[in-house]
Amino acid sequence: MTSKQENPAENVTALIDRITQEFHAMGLPLIANPKLYHGTPFSILDNFYQTLCKQRSEDEEKRFLNRMKYAGIFRQRSQNTFIWDEDIYPLAEPGAIESVLTLDFLRNRKNLVVIGPSGAGKSLLVLIAACNAIRANFSVKYKTGHDIAIALKEARIGNSLSGYIKKLQACDMLIIEDITFASLDSKAAPAFFAIIDRRYERCKTTVVTSNGNINEWAAGLKIEGMSTAILGRFYEGAILVNMNGAKDMRLRQAKDMLEDTTKYTMEALL
Prior knowledge:
Layout: H1 8-25, H2 42-71, H3 96-101, H4 104-107, E1 112-115, H5 122-135, E2 140-144, H6 145-157, H7 161-170, E3 173-177, H8 188-201, E4 205-210, H9 214-219, H10 226-235, E5 239-242, H11 249-269
Parallel strand pairs: 1-4, 1-5, 2-3, 3-4
Helix pairs in contact: 1-2, 6-7, 7-8, 8-10
């Protein structure tokens, strides 16, 4: 049985289609006209296509890194560095971690609450989700609770509070790390509530992590009705990832590295 003979003209046509698709994806419709490339030898078109793909990949990576820095994230996190199963996180609801990594919670405009002790992997999990979200063209802001408390105070003094609140209200995904470290006084607390309340109204995703008791932190705001209102906006329809009961991830990684080093050394000696 003979194989079907390849038609050089079909190969050229298919390659021109791929070139024009790349230009369309780059937002360059004027040079995405197939007529511009008719009559060009296949070898030249192929080299051009390979170079175009490489350039587009480099441009997208630069764009990703710039958006990551704008979000307040200065180190890219990969899903390959996060290991989980029922033994590592025995209290996590089935499917909760997967929802975070696949961005289902973000696409469904749900909040995310991650609780657990220091070293359990809370920050790593939300930073992986943040990097995935940026690559998926969602706008992200990453802040610690302490950073927000200080920024609200400084913005109030500098008469720029309204602008700061609007900035945090607008992004698709706002991450507040260690929210219980946000020491909000009687003037900053209403501004913080305004951020959370407006995001709630607009169905924007807010992510909070904590190794402390969020309920006790909210109660400490000491403004009538605000504690219940904030907690309600955090938890309503939220995905909860409970990392309590987990072993320290940093200690686990250090132990694994030590075991690998020992194994390598022993194999070298044998």
